[in-house]
Glutathione S-transferase (Marinobacter salinus), 219 residues
Amino acid sequence: MSLNRLVIGNKNYSSWSLRPWLLLREFGIPFSEVKIPLYAEGSKETLLRYSPSGKVPAFCHENITVWDSLAICEFVADLYPEKNIWPPKLEDKALARSVSNEMHSGFFAIRNSLPMNCRKQMVFHPMTESLKSEIDRVCEIWRVCRSRHSEKGPFLFGEFSIADAMYAPIVLRFNSYGITVGSTESEYMSTVLSLSSLKEWIAEGVAEKEFLADCEVDA
Ligand SMILES: N[C@@H](CCC(=O)N[C@@H](CS)C(=O)NCC(=O)O)C(=O)O
């Protein structure tokens, strides 16, 4: 039995759950998975059995519980220091932490207008100023990281890191809603979308039966 357990929500909709799940998979860290369908009768009670915040994701390692996506990613980096889950160089780690936290604490227009939905494939039209400026900022972050690390590999910091896990749901959203991006960003999106772990998550999300009307968006 695995020492690690990750509690997640619906794969189709739960972008916060995807982040640590992808991180664990990409670093080959064994874990068992508990999936709790969200916003259904009894969901909150079930969530509270695993997560003091009543939200997913939550992670258990032996008798330690950690909740909140970025806290879980940080904890996993502490748990497996030999795996370089953050980029090892101090200045790279500083940038990786900054862009990961910027994602975690912001981008509300993207999060509200373009909710993650693995089933969605459309072109989103009602663009607002705040949405456009957040999309531009994400693209700028991806370009800056890629321009500094293109020699070392195809991810934001060359090799896959927490920063890629934090931005993976944004990649999915831009792809689902037909957001136009430049060539560097598009290449980065293709890299993330071609991860077999992410393809597996998407396939399982698409196959889920739950339909959450509040998380659905039309053009
Ligand atoms: N800041 C938290 C956000 C967690 C969150 O909002 N999770 C949502 C699903 S993506 C949730 O559990 N919703 C269920 C509920 O509030 O009942 C994180 O980074 O993990």
About this structure: The chain has a mean pLDDT of 96.
